[in-house]
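Hey L., structure's done. Input below.
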Amino acid sequence: QVQLVESGGGLVQPGGSLRLSCATSGIMFSISRMGWYRQGPGKQRELAATISRIGDTVYVDSVKGRFTISRDNAKNTVYLQMNSLKPEDTAVYYCNTRLGGVDYWGKGTLVTVSS
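Output:
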């Protein structure tokens, strides 16, 4: 059974930082491409960042230079370090992986950037 469990969201002021974690089980994590998606209020879900099994990363333009995706294969966990947060980063952040052509999602963690 595939499980993805996000944590680390919360309320942060503009310019602040948060680190999201996604603990996984039921997958061969070390060979899985992992992704962080986000869905802001009234918006469609969008890709924020992905990381391949060998550590290659891809970021949406709006987070480049501010967010860093990383993985710890020993802990079966993927992270998203978010710095210089902006109000427009407010969203529910979801962890994702694809296995056998099927997308798996966590339940999400809410990030609110507000003063």
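The chain has a mean pLDDT of 97. The longest strand covers residues 91-99.

-- N.
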